[in-house]
Design brief:
Strand order of the largest sheet: 2-3-4-5
InterPro entries: RCC1-like_dom, RCC1/BLIP-II, Reg_chr_condens, Ub_ligase/GEF_domain
CATH class: Mainly Beta
Domain RCC1-like: 6-305
Shape: globular
Pfam families: WD40_RLD
Number of helices: 4
Protein name: Secretion regulating guanine nucleotide exchange factor
Distance between the termini: 23 Å
Largest sheet: 4 strands, antiparallel
Keywords: Repeat
CATH superfamily: Regulator of chromosome condensation 1/beta-lactamase-inhibitor protein II
Structural class: mainly beta
Radius of gyration: 19 Å
C-alpha cells in the first residue's frame, strides 16, 4: 500500500545501531548501520536484495550473506545492487541482463552478493545507473561496466567507434580520465559523473535534459564541466538524480541543473538575477538556462546537502517511483545519524 506522508519505522531491526546511510533503487531500498550491517527491503524479482531468494520483502531485513563483512557503501540500480566493503572489495547481486553485475561468468542473475574479482585494486567508491555501474579505486582510476548506455551511444555516434567501457560486461577502465585522480563517482539513468581530487567534475553519457552541460546529445567519453559554471570554486560533493545533477562547492554553495519539470532543481526556471533579461529573450533560451549549473540560495552554507535530514529518524514514504532508480540520489541517499 502506498504511503503519502513520511512515517517513522519504529521497528527497524538494527539492534540499537545507528543508521549511517540509506539509498534506493528502481523498487528496492538499502540501509547501512555504523557497524557495517546492510539491511534491505522492496522488490526482489531478480534477487537484488541479496537474500538468496526472489520474494519481495516488505520490511527491512538484514543481508545475512554479508554478516562477516563490514559494508561502507551500497548503490542500487534498477534491479541490481552494488556493495562496497571496508576492505575495498566490491560485490553485486540481482539482474545481470545487461552485464551490470560485472560478473561475465554469470549468465543469469545472482540471488546472493558475489565478489567482482576483476576489480583487483582497492575500491573507495561505487555508483549504479539504471543498467550500468561504476567504481573508483584508491589510486583514482574509474571503471565502468554494464551495457545500459550502449544502445544510446551507438545511435548517437553512428559511424564512430564507441569506447570499450560502454559495452563492457565486466569492469573496464574509463578512457579519458588517465591523467586524473578521481575520488568519487555517481550515476543515474544513462549518465555517469566523476569528481576528481582537484574538485573538478567530468561527465559522460546521455545529455537529453542538459544534465551534462553540453551541446551534444550524448557524450561517449568524459568531458569536464568548466569551473566558471561554479563561480570558479572547487566541487566538494556531487549527487545525481534520474536526469539532473546537484553539486556543492567547498565553500558550501549548492548548484543544480538538468531536468526541472517536477521541481527537482529546487529553484525557479531561471535564476533571479537573470529574470529581467529572460523576459526579453525567447522561451527557448529560458529553457536552456536550466541546463547550466545555478546556485540554490536557500541551501548555500549547508555542511552537506544530505545533512539536512540528519536530525530525523529513518523515514520512508511514497509510492514506487519507476522513473527514479536512484530515488533522486541527492536526497534519497541522505545519511541519517538517528538511532533505531
Amino acid at each position: 500500500e502506498d504511503v503519502l506522508l513520511p512515517q517513522s519505522l519504529e521497528n527497524f531491526p538494527c539492534n540499537q545501531q545507528r543508521i549511517k546511510s540509506i539509498t534506493g533503487g528502481g523498487g528496492h531500498s538499502a540501509a547501512i548501520t555504523d557497524a557495517g550491517e546492510l539491511f534491505v527491503c522492496g522488490q526482489n524479482k531478480e534477487g537484488q536484495l541479496g537474500l538468496n531468494h526472489t520474494e519481495d520483502v516488505l520490511c527491512f531485513t538484514s543481508c545475512t550473506a554479508l554478516s562477516s563483512l563490514h559494508v561502507i557503501q551500497v548503490a542500487c540500480g534498477w534491479d541490481f545492487t552494488v556493495i562496497l566493503t571496508e576492505n575495498g572489495e566490491v560485490l553485486s547481486c540481482g539482474s545481470n541482463s545487461f552485464g551490470q553485475l560485472g560478473l561475465p561468468q554469470t549468465s543469469g542473475g545472482c540471488l546472493s552478493p558475489q565478489k567482482i574479482e576483476s576489480l583487483r585494486e582497492k575500491t573507495v567508491n561505487v555508483a549504479a545507473g539504471i543498467r550500468h555501474a561504476l567504481a573508483a579505486t584508491e589510486s583514482g582510476l574509474v571503471f565502468q561496466w554494464g551495457t545500459g548506455m550502449a544502445s544510446r551511444a551507438k545511435r548517437m555516434n553512428q559511424g564512430r567507434t564507441i569506447p570499450l567501457f560502454l559495452t563492457a560486461k565486466e569492469p573496464c577502465r574509463v578512457s579519458g580520465l588517465e591523467k586524473l585522480k578521481v575520488k568519487r563517482v555517481t550515476a543515474s539513468s544513462y549518465h555517469s559523473v566523476s569528481l576528481t581530487d582537484k574538485g573538478e567534475l567530468y561527465v559522460w553519457g546521455s545529455n537529453k535534459h542538459g544534465q551534462l552541460v553540453s551541446k551534444e546529445i550524448f557524450l561517449a567519453e568524459p568531458v569536464k564541466i568548466e569551473a566558471n559554471f561554479f563561480s570558479d570554486e572547487k566541487i566538494g560533493a556531487v549527487w545525481s538524480g534520474w536526469t539532473h545533477l546537484v553539486a556543492q562547492t567547498e565553500s558550501g554553495k549548492v548548484f543544480t541543473w538538468g531536468r526541472a519539470d517536477y521541481g527537482q532543481l529546487g529553484r525557479s526556471s531561471v535564476h533571479d538575477g537573470q529574470r529581467q533579461e529572460v523576459c526579453r529573450i525567447s522561451e527557448e533560451h529560458s529553457e536552456q538556462l536550466l541546463n547550466v549549473p545555478v546556485p540554490v540560495p536557500c541551501l548555500t552554507g549547508a555542511s552537506q546537502v544530505r545533512d539536512i535530514v540528519s536530525y530525523f529518524k529513518v523515514l520512508q514514504c511514497g509510492a514506487y517511483l519507476p522513473a527514479i532508480p536512484a530515488l533522486e540520489h541527492h536526497h534519497a541517499s541522505a545519511s541519517s545519524s538517528a538511532s533505531c
